[in-house]
Specification:
single chain, 139 residues, 2 domains, 7 helices, 75% helix, 0% strand
Length: 139
């Protein structure tokens, strides 16, 4: 009898831990648009800017580039989970999806160590700023 009570108590603790873990995962905060943009584009260590220089060489450091492109993909995926401060939702979905697809193409090229494709995808990603900012960037 005592064994069953202990077993039931242990099971209750495990179930509570699993439920709490799921709640924490559900409550994990999605980075804001501003947080994503700052992380990806602002400062000397921003991956989008660093990649421009790293992709100029004939023999880039693919290990470094691949880590940066993975970060770009993860952060760009968060954009669509946000709502812009201005502009309509359909436009935001279209532009944030295009940004993510360019980030994914950049990562795919980096994983394949395809310099030409990486440069092309990086160029598309970098050129997408104005189209989105003119419609969706708040003050």
């Amino acid at each position: 009898m005592r064994f069953r009570v202990l077993l039931a108590g242990a099971l209750a603790v495990v179930v509570a831990a699993v439920v709490a873990g799921r709640a924490d995962a559900d409550n994990a905060e999605t980075p804001s648009i501003k947080q994503v943009m700052v992380k990806l584009h602002k400062g000397a260590n921003a991956p989008v800017g660093k990649l421009k220089g790293e992709l100029k060489g004939e023999k880039p450091n693919w290990d470094t580039i691949q880590k940066q492109t993975k970060e770009i993909v993860v952060l760009s995926a968060a954009l669509a989970k946000n709502e812009p401060s201005k502009g309509d939702a359909a436009s935001w979905k279209k532009l944030s999806d295009e940004y993510f697809q360019d980030a994914k193409a950049l990562d795919d090229a980096a994983q394949a160590k395809d310099l030409a494709a990486a440069k092309t995808a990086h160029g598309r990603l970098s050129a997408s700023c104005k189209a989105c900012h003119s419609v969706h960037k708040g003050k």
